[in-house]
Design goal:
alpha+beta, about 100 residues
Length: about 100
């Protein structure tokens, strides 16, 4: 599962995600039955989660559950050398999809 902008998750929902990660269980909305789940999770954010923890806007226990294998990547605006590679990749991808060869 991919969670984009996990830093934007309301503090009220964070314990539910933490429970799913720790206990590998969840309950559907409106249900009283617990279902088990086996998943891999990738979470992304551009927020400063450490500052959010200091401000009590992000749970420390959830942060440590999500921060198992952190990957820090600078924004694309700081990686100009990657832009031509991305343009070439997407040009080829969509040209192939549209049946263009030139």
């Amino acid at each position: 599962m991919f969670l984009d902008e996990v830093g934007e998750m309301p503090i009220e929902l964070q314990p539910k995600l933490l429970r799913a990660l720790q206990e590998r269980a969840y309950e559907r909305v409106g249900s009283v039955r617990t279902k088990s789940v086996d998943m891999r999770l990738v979470a992304a954010t551009n927020c400063d989660l450490e500052q959010m923890m200091a401000d009590k806007r992000f749970r420390i226990d959830l942060y440590y559950r999500l921060n198992v294998f952190p990957i820090q990547l600078p924004p694309l605006r700081e990686r100009y050398e990657d832009i031509p590679l991305l343009v070439e990749h997407f040009t080829q991808k969509y040209a192939q999809r549209m049946g263009k060869t030139d």
